[in-house]
Amino acid sequence: MKQSMRFFGWISGSVIFIVVLFTALTLQTLQSSLRNIQTIERGQTAWVVSRIEFEYIRLNRAIPEFMLGLAKADDVRQRFDILWSRVNVVTTGATAARLAELNLDTSAVTRLRNILLETNAAVETLEDGDLQSAIALRDASAVLNSDIRELTLNVRKASSDQALRTRQSLVRISLLANLMALLTGLTLIITIFLIAMDSRHNRKISEGNMLLLIASNASTEAKTQFISVVNHELRTPLTSISGALSLIRGGAAGEINQKVSQLLEIASRNCDTLTALIGDLLEIDKAQAGKLALTMSVTNVTELVCNSIVANLAYAEKHGIRLVQLPNEQDCYAQVDGVRIMQVIANLLSNAIKFSEAGSEVQVSIHSEVDRLFIVVRDEGIGIPEASLDTIFERFHQVDGKTDRKVGGTGLGLSIARGIVESHGGSLTVSSELGSGSSFKVQLVKAYPALSDN
């Protein structure tokens, strides 16, 4: 559920980003189009061109009036100068650029400009009553009458078409912007809904975690009570039973026959097993709670390994196993509780012996790397299935879970061993190949003999 909400939240966020980006681009395009319309309207290209036609007509009207004596030479020059300025506006600057955008034939304006250049000198020297010069001017300008008219009409039509296209584009862009705004709104609504759902889900998880915490505390309290019961209500009776059995086997109650002796031996052995189990339960509880009593000192770990091997020689010989300590170049030291580390090594050795075939070998080696010290116990036994490598250090875990297991044990030894090693700031790991044996590695923090005086 939570992963699904995260996925939809990611999708929603991506959609919002895309929509906002696209909306921004759309608004930028809309703004650009508005600027184009404003430019067209401000420039009024068609109006500027129509002014050329208007001034051109007024010049052609002023020349006949001059010939009839109704206008003076200055009137003709004034109309000529105004037309010249209009032509300059169209052929240069922004108006010329906008005419080029309309892709129209403006050669008529060019020809008109050339005619004005050719007749400029004659206009400047025109005198009142100079009919010959007036006739020449009339004939020169009259040639472009239809061309100027056609250009004006074409510019008006092209400008109108361009404005229409721009406005249609604006309508489409506006619709698209509205659609993007709608999508943004819907996406925001979905996002808010998902956030609310996620918040609700988180609240449920928090409530569930609180219930689990309460249940965990209750479980811890129950476990503590159970350990207390085990320690006080079981250990004391078992100690009494074990003592009584020892006395009976020693003949304190009189002579016993062989059959009874065998039964007493079984009872005594099972009593010892129960006592060891209770001890293991107490040990693992202390290890997990971080309450193991440790007496730390700089200790020669090489000697600890040697002593552990000596202590387990009889057990190894009973099973036909050879214990071998591989030589190392120099003694290795660590800040440890020697008794607890010997307990770990003894557990690893006893497991290696139990799960090895008679005639095989169990090797113990020590080496150091930089600030770390390693103790490795390697056997040639049955090995550990890959599926059990992650659970072998759990409480009551047995590699061979069948009821007819060939080896005994409570399944607490490795869990206790790991707890002891981790209490020392180290680690206990395993590597194994089924049918080829296992290798347990204890990692400890290296120390130096010089610290032993502190």
From TrEMBL:
Domain of life: Bacteria
UniProt xrefs under InterPro entries: HATPase_C_sf, HATPase_dom, His_kinase_dom, HisK_dim/P_dom, HisK_dim/P_sf, Sensor_HK_Regulatory, Sig_transdc_His_kin-like_C
Name of the top EC class for this enzyme: transferase
Keywords: ATP-binding, Cell membrane, Kinase, Membrane, Nucleotide-binding, Phosphoprotein, Transferase, Transmembrane, Transmembrane helix, Two-component regulatory system
Gene Ontology MF, one: phosphorelay sensor kinase activity
GO cellular component: plasma membrane
Residue ranges of domain Histidine kinase in the record: 229-448
EC number assigned by the record: 2.7.13.3
Pfam families: HATPase_c, HisKA
Membrane listed as a keyword: yes
Compartments where found: Cell membrane
Xref: CDD domains: HisKA
Transmembrane annotation, as ranges: 7-27, 175-196
Catalytic activity: ATP + protein L-histidine = ADP + protein N-phospho-L-histidine
Primary localisation category: membrane
Name of the protein in question: histidine kinase
